[in-house]
Amino acid sequence: MWYHMHRILIDKELCKGCKSCVLACMLRHSDAKDMYTLDLDNIDTEARGHIEFDKDNKPVPIFCRHCDEPECVMTCMSGAMSKDKESGIVSYDSTKCGSCYMCVMSCPYGLLKVDDRTKQYILKCDLCKDEEYPRCVANCPTGAIQLQKEEVYVE
């Protein structure tokens, strides 16, 4: 059966560290109507990705890879982490989460984190699944963050 898989690709050479991707993610996961009303001091306004700096002090975007064989899904004992076979999107269901943080500890990219307010829920990229493009991709001015769509055959 053919599936349409989605994956975020990063070209760190194009990243300027502007954090437009981070702000777009924060806006997507907040109650703010636009960037001007986004409360950056609100601990409930957290991005699912971030920008780090490498040993040469160059910016590196860090986003969920929605891995082919996601460690977060394999180590999740409650079933809160799952991978959709059709889209390839790795999702988090807070209603099933037991707050064991195995997913956080197992992510090879160090991407998953616990929410700042309750320390019970995992902040996880959902690829803005209800939109044509993830906000981080749509708001990157340099093209450093791209969405790869590919057809994959799975038996």
Output the keywords.
155 residues; alpha+beta; two-stranded antiparallel ribbon; 4 helices; globular
What are the segments in which pLDDT stays under 50 over at least 5 consecutive residues?
A: none
The secondary-structure class comes to: alpha+beta
The overall average pLDDT, rounded, is 91
Let me know the largest β-sheet.
2 strands, antiparallel
Oligomer: single chain
Gap from first CA to last CA: 6 Å
What overall geometry do the principal axes of the alpha carbons give?
globular
Count of helical regions: 4
Total strands: 8
**Amount of helix:** 10-25%
- Any idea what the radius of gyration is? 16 Å
Order of strands across the widest beta sheet? 1-8
Strand content: 15-25%
Give a written overview of the molecule:
There is one protein chain. The chain has 155 residues and is an alpha+beta fold. The protein has 4 helices and 8 strands; from the N terminus they run E-H-E-E-H-E-E-H-E-E-H-E. The chain has a two-stranded antiparallel sheet. Strands 2-3 form a two-stranded antiparallel ribbon. A hairpin with a 5-residue loop joins strand 2 (50-53) and strand 3 (59-62). The radius of gyration is 16 Å and the shape is globular. The N and C termini lie close together (6 Å).
